């Protein structure tokens, strides 16, 4: 299958390892990955911070860039959430009905990584090997916007050599919330403190998730407290093999 | 009598009363977050209600269908609110009640105060009511020399402690039993000085005090959970029975009700009486459901007044997206699942409506510009939407209101610059490289220092993804 990668601005700029892993994984599974060059950012930060009008050109750009592709994947629950649940709304609010229709069309072909693997490609065992003790944080937008359910866990359970430990109160928000982490930094930090406590309680070496932004938040906190727990994107675990 | 709905909705009066705080949410949250006792009380209490409600909600195989029905009924009601309110007025009047229309909190307070004055009484007993908290009725009555006595146990604790409610359902959720004992010892008339902090003993002390008050106060003030337009029937749900004492014993009953509380027909209650207790207190059936229609000679209050309160609601109704907030049935399920509420408590929101629903309702009632920090008091985690028994899409409403809120000038400039950069790939690539060159920053300048106060920034990678892809 020919799959267009929507890398997301965050992974492109700060967490390329997660995006490279997505490419490696899909190619290993026998698919062709293309990278539409005009892509930048889906505009989620602008929309969620109250700058919907500024986001309009970004929505237009995103729709134009990905319209030619049958299947689009992003390794981010919240960016796919924005494409699926916000782009058409932003277009409609600006009175652009045809853009809204095209945005809905692109959204219907856009998948978060675990959705693509399980629902579209029909694979749960991706042949990964990752000899570590890992706990999984299900990230709010994957869980409640996209309803990915246990798809990431089904993928993780097939990873060889890995010990998967359950995260207590897993469905609680880590406190990131985009600019919430800046505008309400102290409340965000209080939420993060509880998330980190639960991660540490598992005794895991690695905390994984399907969203680089939440991992940046949790990882930033763990690094500050020198906790010795690493954050690794789901794609990197699924891409890992004994040979790599 | 329909003047609330005359004129353009856009110029409908804005809400006044206890709907906004003295300081923005982050500043108020700062104080709450420093209070460890408060966080322990809240964490314990919300966790307990959350588990209880979750268990009884899970028992119903048709919970999602019930939610959809509740949502549809509310949407249909809002679509013809003026005509339903007129029908309600007609039916209540026909049944011997008197209907008053209050454009805002001040007018409602004046109406209620005048009605109490006319009875010659100096004290009223009160059923727990959000509408009267919203309009600040207790303060208005006190100013007129009339003593309001809250009869809901938690509201009584708040009142005696000269405190403010911090939760829609459990207004004293921020207090533990040791604190309640102290408040009772200090403020409750005739309390036993040997009072312990055993919950049953505390409840018994309140009961003794309230019984005496019930039997000697002939005027009561209540709110309403629902009002049935087709019959003119008012409905109050409560758990203690104290509400029923107020609704049946006095000679005069004055009910203050937000105009959005009307439902078209009796059969609609079938849906809401299933949704509300399970989402709210975690009970399968509500313990005390009182219903009355006007005045029944020889039975219950012989004088009944209904005050229909707008206080910003018509203005909310004018916003196609925002009007969903009026569907709220005040169950407080969204508060109990909210990670922000759990850590800051209700006072930080500055309004009698705290938590996720408060963050979308309060700014709409007052006008967003007057309450601009509340739509940002959420990480948009979405737990509130899942918990809401009438499916109010609170995260989308928060985003909608953020797009209507006034923004700080520097932020506006930064956001416009970021959007421009993101819309020009060459500029975007240059910005990426610049970020890499700056290396790993330890401390960011304001307003970004909130991040680096508690979190490290990631190490910039050796190359961006698109550079890697280009040389691949």
Automatic annotation (TrEMBL), chain A:
GO terms for cellular component: cytosol. GO terms for molecular function: oxidoreductase activity. It comes from the Bacteria. Residues 3-82, 134-218 form the Cysteine-rich domain. PANTHER family: LACTATE UTILIZATION PROTEIN A, UNCHARACTERIZED PROTEIN YKGE. This is L-lactate dehydrogenase complex protein LldE. It comes from Pseudosporangium ferrugineum.
TrEMBL record, chain B:
Residues 403-472 form the Lactate utilization protein B C-terminal domain. PROSITE patterns: 4FE4S_FER_1. This is L-lactate dehydrogenase complex protein LldF. Transmembrane segments: none annotated. Residues 325-392 form the 4Fe-4S ferredoxin-type domain. Keywords: 4Fe-4S, Electron transport, Iron, Iron-sulfur, Metal-binding, Repeat, Transport. Residues 1-22 are annotated as: Disordered. GO terms for molecular function: 4 iron, 4 sulfur cluster binding; metal ion binding. It comes from the Bacteria. Residues 85-295 form the LUD domain. InterPro entries: 4Fe4S_Fe-S-bd, 4Fe4S_Fe_S_CS, FTHF_cligase-like_sf, Helical_ferredxn, LUD_dom, LutB/LldF, LutB_C, NagB/RpiA_transferase-like. SUPFAM superfamilies: 4Fe-4S ferredoxins, NagB/RpiA/CoA transferase-like. Coiled coil: none annotated. One of its GO terms (biological process) is lactate metabolic process.
